[in-house]
Amino acid sequence: MQIKSAVFVTSARGIADCPAWDRPEFAFIGRSNVGKSSMINLLSNKDSLAKVSATPGKTRLLNFFLMNDTWSLVDLPGYGFAKAAKHEKFDFNESAGDYLEQRENLRRVFVLIDSRHPPQRIDVDFTVWLGGTGRPFSLVFTKVDKQSDAKTEANIALFQETLARSLVLSPEVLTSSVKTRDGRQQILRAISHSLGA
Ligand code: GDP
Predict the structure, then answer these.
(1) I want to staple 30 with a disulfide (CB 3.0 to 4.6 A). Which of 69, 112, 136, 197 is the partner?
(2) How far apart are CA 75 and CA 42, in angstroms?
């Protein structure tokens, strides 16, 4: 798929003020600093598209972009640790949770995970939760240019092993680098496939 146009449409505080359209939506989520903004810019071929989501007041919102006048890329607020929790537990914006559970237009979720680290509990917990929603999703291991392929593969294998303890189905796994543009076509292909294009 070629991206011919990518425009910011709106920010939503919650499921109730998501756009009233029937565009297929593809959501991107991950912990802060995973490379989500860089990925959105890479996909859209625009240097500053994701800047919109990072402007003050918008980081906790669901940000909708219209791509090729056809489908929507949805930039979701990231997850983090619940501050007050006794045990470490992932915590994320309630509206992102509602969106992932309830939004009819949502076709696939791309969960971004930093490929440099062995499995982080927060990413595993979130992925297991997402698996429980029954949504189709792909894991995208980011920043693969930062270390050897062997290290990346080892971290991915460990993540998959950890997930297999809790999830019956193993999700599709992709890798990405904004430096080499690795992964861009694979993500767009997954979207095309889901669009039936
Ligand atoms: P966000 O918080 O998830 O939106 O993360 P950003 O897109 O702002 O990226 C965080 C940092 O990681 C920035 O300094 C990026 O330049 C860097 N980064 C993101 N993706 C990659 C990548 O694929 N390769 C390398 N080398 N750096 C990356």
Answers:
(1) 112
(2) 14
Domain ranges of the chain: 6-195
Sequence-distant (≥ 6) Cβ neighbours of residue 123 within 8 angstroms: 30, 31, 111, 113, 159
Answer whether CATH 3.40.50.300 is correct for domain 6-195.
Answer: yes
Report if pTM > 0.85.
yes
Rounded distance from Cα 40 to ligand 1 centre (Å): 11
Q: What is the pLDDT of residues 23-45, one digit of tens each?
A: 999 999 999 899 999 999 999 99
Q: How far is the CA of 20 from the centre of ligand 1 (A)?
A: 32
User: In this structure, which residue's CA is closest to atom 28 in ligand 1?
Assistant: 143
User: Could you read off the pLDDT of 124-163 as tens digits, one per residue?
Assistant: 999 999 999 999 999 999 999 999 999 999 999 999 999 9
Indicate which residue's Cα is closest to atom 21 of ligand 1.
143
Q: Using the mean position of ligand 1's atoms as its centre, give its distance from the Cα of residue 152 in Å.
A: 16
Ligand 1, residue 78: give the atom nearest the CA: 3
Among the listed residues 4, 97, 107, 11, the one whose alpha carbon sits nearest the alpha carbon of residue 51? 11
Which residues does a 6 A CB cutoff place in the pocket of ligand 1? 30, 32-38, 142-143, 145-146, 177-179
Distance 91 CA to ligand 1 centre (A): 22
